[in-house]
Design brief:
Blueprint: H1 3-9, H2 18-24, E1 36-39, H3 44-47, H4 51-61, E2 68-74, E3 77-82, H5 84-98, E4 112-116, H6 131-146, E5 150-154, H7 163-174, H8 177-198, H9 201-215, H10 219-243, H11 261-269, E6 273-276, E7 279-282, E8 292-295, H12 303-318, E9 322-328, H13 332-344, E10 353-358, E11 361-363, H14 378-396, H15 403-420, E12 428-430, H16 432-435, H17 443-460, H18 474-484, H19 486-496, H20 500-519, H21 527-551
Parallel strand pairs: 4-5, 4-9, 9-10, 11-12
Antiparallel strand pairs: 1-3, 2-3, 6-7, 7-8
Helix pairs in contact: 1-2, 5-18, 7-8, 7-9, 8-10, 9-10, 14-15, 17-20, 17-21, 18-20, 18-21, 19-20, 20-21
The protein binds arginine.
């Protein structure tokens, strides 16, 4: 039951949509005033009245019911008090009957969302810089599915470019089959680094020749390339499995090579293509952007050309409602250019292309880049987190069984949560100690809270039933309100492409539950109180589980 929606549906303000009212409704920090509040300041301009007068007149028009028991107008705010007993009863019943479906909806039914994420580069290191795109994309993927959308996860592989000529050349000179087979992506990367450091002019021209051979379908060159590709994918699959992310398509840049010509023809027919120093460009001067390069002077396509073809292909194939690109903000200009070019081509759906930009991740010691060999492989970060988690839980609870399994859930969870907790556009410094803290704003804290809730239920032997007309006390009610807001948190996260809202929500709910748990007895309570508190505890556990599952984080039964 979404109480914000309930309220929004019952307020009419001329010139303001229900959605706008809905998103304006806030939870006041101090519930003495009300449980929900609508600030009227932003309507003052449209209505040409003071916020206080607006609040007064909305108050007179509002009809209270079984859900909202009291409405007041104070200092330009319209405050709502909910009928606590009825809210508690509805919310708990809803959670305990819908269980792992609590929070899900059908809002996306019939709509498809494409999400381009992780998009690894073949034969290049999968490093900590890829963490955000992988877990952000993975979370958005699960979130939209939960909200009823069909979702297409696309790994737009970086599998085209002159670097593959260099790699094959390096392999031919210095490589060895067994070593590469054994060393996998690390061995390939070493060859690449060595080429960049040591190749002379002769090797460089040989590399260009190898690139041409791949392009012309030469059997041997393509076999080596495919081999490198399969080694890279094997490596990243291991990481995807750990992080719980999946893809429906691995159509990468190479896939679009034979799909670019129609786009180029269309650009030409629309008179958008201009020649500039032998290259073909689309001028974007009028939009304060440098030109978008379509073909180089030697006729070769570019990253942009392939992205234009990819966007058209996705529209034709999936008829998406939206197509998201979860890519670092360094590529802001690239996507602005691509979207603008498509708009100029008359693709009305260009407005549905969204660059979900995110900030950089670095480690505390400043390491992150692949240049000068200081690569921090994502796999190493994940494994280090699992190892540290193993130590920490061992110290905290030496008797624990299945420590490995638990450490994996805790360690992987910490990596994901660490990357998702902050607003996505912020640069983050990844700290092992911080993400693994039991009492910080961490997944460990949330997992631990959940495990504690589960053990309360296990000890009492029943999950509680929801008594009728139970009047919750202040701490209980804080938890109830947080539980009730879960669906709207998901809606907002989906609307803003911001899984951090969900991560923050789990910490907030866990904190409220812990406050309740400190102040209120559960197992030794009696009668309706006990039943209610047990039901509340189960509902918290379920909701935390659902929320973390969207982020790709599992919950150990015990910790
Ligand atoms: N492989 C690219 C990179 O690592 C990201 C690709 C993003 N997707 C896209 N359609 N351009 O920078």
């Amino acid at each position: 039951m979404d109480y914000k929606k309930h309220i929004a549906q019952r307020i009419k303000i001329e010139g303001v949509s229900e959605e706008e009212i809905y998103s304006s409704i806030a939870l006041p920090p101090n519930s003495e005033m009300g449980d929900y509040a609508l600030p009227c300041f932003k309507f003052a301009k449209i209505l040409r009245k003071s916020p206080a007068i607006i609040a007064e007149s909305l108050k007179s028009a509002y009809v209270t019911d079984a859900v909202i028991s009291e409405v007041s107008a104070i200092n330009g705010y319209l405050n709502f008090k909910v009928n606590k007993a009825s809210l508690a009863e509805r919310v708990l019943n809803e959670i305990l009957s819908s269980r792992e479906k609590y929070g899900s909806s059908e809002i996306g039914k019939g709509k498809t969302i494409c999400i381009d994420y992780s998009s690894v580069n073949i034969a290049k290191p999968f490093h900590i810089g890829h963490l955000s795109t992988t877990v952000l994309g993975g979370a958005l993927y699960k979130l939209y599915k939960f909200l009823g959308y069909s979702v297409v996860g696309i790994n737009h592989l970086g599998d085209y470019g002159t670097q593959f000529g260099k790699l094959i050349c390096a392999y031919k000179h210095w490589g060895n089959k067994e070593e590469v087979e054994k060393g996998g992506i690390h061995a390939i990367n070493e060859l690449y680094v060595r080429f960049n450091n040591e190749a002379d002019e002769a090797m460089k021209s040989e590399a260009r020749e190898y690139f041409r051979l791949i392009e012309n379908g030469d059997k041997e060159a393509n076999e080596i390339f495919e081999w490198f590709k399969s080694l890279t994918l094997k490596y990243v699959h291991g990481i995807y499995e750990k992080l719980g992310v999946t893809f429906d398509s691995y159509a990468g840049e190479r896939f679009y090579i034979d799909k670019m010509q129609p786009v180029i023809d269309e650009l030409r027919a629309a008179k958008l293509l201009k020649e500039s120093e032998g290259a073909q460009i689309v001028e974007l001067y009028d939009y304060s952007m440098p030109p978008c390069l379509i073909l180089r002077s030697d006729g070769a396509s570019l990253y942009s050309t392939r992205d234009l073809a990819a966007a058209c292909y996705r529209k034709n194939t999936y008829d998406f409602h939206k197509c998201l690109y979860v890519v670092a903000y360094q590529q802001n200009l690239h996507f602005k250019q691509i979207f603008k070019v498509l708009e100029l081509m008359g693709k009305e759906w260009a407005k549905d292309l969204i660059h979900v930009a995110y900030g950089m991740v670095s480690l505390e010691d400043g390491a992150m880049s692949t240049r000068n060999g200081r690569v921090v492989w994502l796999e190493d970060v994940i494994n280090a987190c699992i190892d540290k988690a193993y130590k920490i839980i061992g110290e905290k609870n030496p008797e624990l069984k299945n420590k490995e399994e638990i450490a994996e859930k805790v360690g992987v969870g910490a990596v994901i949560f660490g990357a998702l907790y902050n607003n996505k556009i912020k640069d983050i410094v990844f700290s092992y100690d911080k993400v693994l803290s039991f009492d910080g704003e961490t997944s460990v804290y949330v997992q631990y809270t959940c495990a504690r809730a589960n053990s309360v239920i296990a000890k009492s032997g029943c999950a509680g039933t929801v008594p009728e007309k139970y009047e919750p006390n202040a701490q209980e009610f804080e938890v109830i309100k947080a539980l009730a807001s879960f669906p709207s948190v998901l809606d907002e996260a989906a609307e803003k492409y911001e899984p951090s809202y969900i991560a923050r929500y789990t910490v907030d709910l866990a904190q409220k539950f812990n406050k309740f748990y400190i102040d209120c007895k559960v197992i030794s309570a009696e009668g309706d109180t006990k039943q209610f508190r047990l039901a509340l505890t189960s509902a918290v556990s379920q909701t935390l589980k659902n929320a973390l599952a969207i982020l790709g984080i599992g919950i150990p039964e015990k910790m």
